[in-house]
Every structure is written in structure tokens, then in C-alpha cells.
Design brief:
The structure is a single chain. This protein has about 290 residues and is mostly helical. It has 13 helices and no strands. It has two domains: about 60 residues; about 200 residues, Cytochrome C Oxidase, Chain A (Up-down Bundle). The N terminus and C terminus are likely disordered. Bound molecules: protoporphyrin IX containing FE (HEM) (2 copies). One protoporphyrin IX containing FE binds next to helix 9 and helix 12.
């Protein structure tokens, strides 16, 4: 009986020769190099070319153990977590650095550029993105915070101010800066009181929306995530914040509408080509 068992065991763990041996060696090498998918393929090839399953499986497991040992040596995912968190939390510093640079540039130039509308959008972008992306991003980026706030209204609180500050405002700044040059008008030609109103209505409206999302997000996190009150019941308690969102959103929309009106009909009003050239030429120069 014993010899029968031994014979079966020996049969199962028979030597792998020729091509099969090469596949096994490959599999072992790949397994130890962490390439477990390729290692599994090499084991399958070894089995196919005549290596019994038991031996292939044993070596596969050895490969896995080697991978685990290497993982422990270089630091497991859990051990690297604080490092990952710290690197992620460094992100906002770029925004803070940009805002500081904008302030430094403003101090140096004394805000003397004649296209004051473009300056408003550009400096506004540096400030708004530092607050929206930098500060409000940092506010919920730590896992200890994000495990509570993930996917709540805290996310659009950050998303709206970051998007508007980092992308919308800088694009409007670039358009306002480039237009006089492209259309041959004076640098100050984009400056209208409707333009300034449009700027402040959008900035004020978006700031108010951010505050409404923030109040709703903090309340939602507390009621739904901490006190485990149901989603819909929580939403009912957030209605007041959504009323605030609608009100501040309306201010924002008014600003956008005024911006469009100004773009096409006020700052962008058609002017005679000669008058436009005269406006663009520096004082005292003669038209050529
Ligand atoms: C240009 C800059 C940025 C923009 C436009 C932006 C915009 C957004 C938007 C739209 C979302 C929501 C994504 C979704 O629908 O799931 C989001 C999520 C998130 N952002 Fe940003 N972001 C910016 C920078 C940053 C920075 C600097 C940080 C902080 C390190 C940050 C931290 C986060 C976090 C933690 C979430 C996930 C929120 C959650 O768990 O629900 N963001 N961001
Ligand atoms: C009147 C103005 C606006 C109002 C009232 C408004 C309102 C909203 C609301 C209620 C949501 C869904 C939030 C949620 O339940 O997760 C949302 C999502 C979003 N909005 Fe707005 N929004 C406005 C303007 C804007 C603007 C101008 C931008 C971009 C510059 C923007 C970008 C986004 C983004 C990226 C999301 C997805 C955010 C996320 O997944 O968390 N919105 N908005």
C-alpha cells in the first residue's frame, strides 16, 4: 500500500525535462520578478509539454512566496500608505505657489497693464484656484477625512470653485488679453462697466455656490455618514442649502449673461476700422 502511494506521488512529481524544464525555469524566473501573469502562462506551457500539474503548482506557489517576500522587503502597500498620503497632500502647494507668484508679479508691475479686464480674470484665477483646488482640495484629500466625505456634496463644493478658478477664469483672462491684439483695438477696449459687473457677479455667485455646497456637504456628512440617517431623509434636511444654491446660482447665471452681452454688444461692438486703428495707436503717433 505504502509503495503504491509513493509510486503515485513520484509519478505526480516526475521530473520535467526538455522543453517542459525550460518552461518551468522561465516560470520560476518570471514569478520571482513579480510578473505573475507571464509566470502563470509559462506554468501552463510546462504542464502542456509534459510536466505534471503537482510540480508546476508547487513551483508556482514558490513564485508567489518569493513575490510576497520581495513585497515585505520593499514595503507593503499598507506600509507605503502614509507616504502616498503625504505626496497627495503636496498637490495644493503648486496652487499656493502660483497665487504667491501672481501676488509678487502684481507688486512688481503695480497693476499698470492697460488691459485691466484681463488682469482681473488672471489674478482672479490665481486666487480662486488656490482657494478652490488648493485649500478646498486639501480639506478633503486626507483619507481620514475622505472616508467620511467621499461622494458627498463636499466634492462639488471643491469641484465648482476649482473648475471655475483654474479653467474658466484663466480662459476668460486669455481671451480678454488676446482680443485687442487680434482685432486691432486699443488694450483698454475690453474695459466696460458691464464687464466689471459680469466679473464680480460670476465671482460672487460662484463663491456663494461654493458656500452653499459646503454647508450642504458638512450637514450631509454628519447626518448620513456619521449618524447613519438614510440618504433621502438627509436630502430633505438639506433643502435650505439648495435654495441658497439656486439663489447664488442665479447670481452666477446673471453674470454669465452679462458677460455674453458685453462680449458681443458692448466691448465687442462693431467700430469703424479707422477709428479702431486710431484707438490702438499709442498717443501722439500718426497713422501710417
Ligand atoms: C485644477 C485643479 C482641480 C480641479 C479642476 C478639480 C476638480 C475636481 C472635481 C470636478 C472632482 C469631482 C470628481 C467626481 O465627480 O468624482 C474632484 C474630486 C476630488 N479632488 Fe479635485 N480638482 C482639482 C485639484 C485638486 C487638488 C489640488 C486636490 C487636493 C490635493 C484635489 C482633491 C480632490 C479629491 C480628494 C477629490 C475626491 C472627492 C471625493 O472623494 O468625492 N483636487 N476634483
Ligand atoms: C448656475 C450655476 C451652477 C449650478 C447651480 C450648478 C449645480 C450643480 C449641481 C447641483 C451639481 C450636482 C452635485 C452633486 O449632487 O454631486 C453639479 C455638478 C457639477 N458641476 Fe455644476 N453648477 C453650476 C455651474 C457649474 C460650472 C460653471 C461648472 C464648471 C466650471 C460646473 C461644474 C460641475 C461639475 C464638474 C460637476 C460634477 C461635480 C461632482 O461630480 O462632484 N458647474 N453642479
Amino acid at each position: 500500500m505504502t509503495s503504491l502511494i509513493l509510486a503515485i506521488a513520484l509519478f505526480q512529481a516526475g521530473p520535467c525535462r526538455g522543453e517542459a524544464e525550460r518552461h518551468i525555469a522561465d516560470a520560476q524566473r518570471l514569478g520571482e520578478a513579480f510578473d505573475l501573469a507571464a509566470a502563470a502562462e509559462a506554468f501552463a506551457a510546462a504542464v502542456k509539454s509534459g510536466c505534471p500539474d503537482a510540480r508546476a503548482a508547487a513551483i508556482y506557489i514558490r513564485g508567489l512566496i518569493a513575490a510576497r517576500a520581495a513585497d515585505a522587503q520593499f514595503g507593503s502597500a499598507a506600509a507605503l500608505q502614509p507616504l502616498q498620503e503625504t505626496i497627495s497632500a503636496l498637490e495644493p502647494f503648486v496652487f499656493f505657489a502660483m497665487a504667491m507668484y501672481a501676488y509678487y508679479a502684481m507688486r512688481r508691475s503695480g497693476l499698470t497693464h492697460p488691459n485691466r479686464m484681463a488682469l482681473h480674470w488672471t489674478i482672479g484665477s490665481a486666487v480662486f484656484s488656490a482657494l478652490g483646488a488648493g485649500l478646498l482640495g486639501l480639506a478633503h484629500t486626507w483619507p481620514a477625512v475622505n472616508k467620511w466625505t467621499h461622494g458627498t456634496l463636499i466634492t462639488p463644493m471643491h469641484g465648482h470653485m476649482a473648475f471655475f478658478g483654474a479653467y474658466v477664469m484663466i480662459v476668460l483672462g486669455m481671451i480678454t488679453y488676446a482680443l485687442p491684439g487680434l482685432t486691432g483695438r486699443g488694450e483698454e477696449s475690453r474695459e466696460t462697466s458691464a464687464g466689471f459687473w459680469a466679473f464680480w457677479l460670476q465671482v460672487g455667485g460662484m463663491f456663494g455656490m461654493t458656500m452653499a455646497f459646503a454647508a450642504a456637504g458638512i450637514t450631509q456628512t454628519y447626518l448620513e455618514r456619521i449618524l447613519s440617517i438614510g440618504y433621502l431623509e438627509t436630502q430633505l434636511k438639506l433643502q435650505v442649502h439648495f435654495l441658497m444654491l439656486v439663489a447664488t446660482g442665479a447670481v452666477f447665471v446673471l453674470g454669465v449673461a452679462l458677460s455674453l452681452w458685453d462680449f458681443f454688444f458692448l466691448a465687442g461692438r462693431p467700430v469703424e476700422a479707422a477709428a479702431a486703428r486710431a484707438g490702438a495707436a499709442p498717443a501722439g503717433s500718426t497713422a501710417g
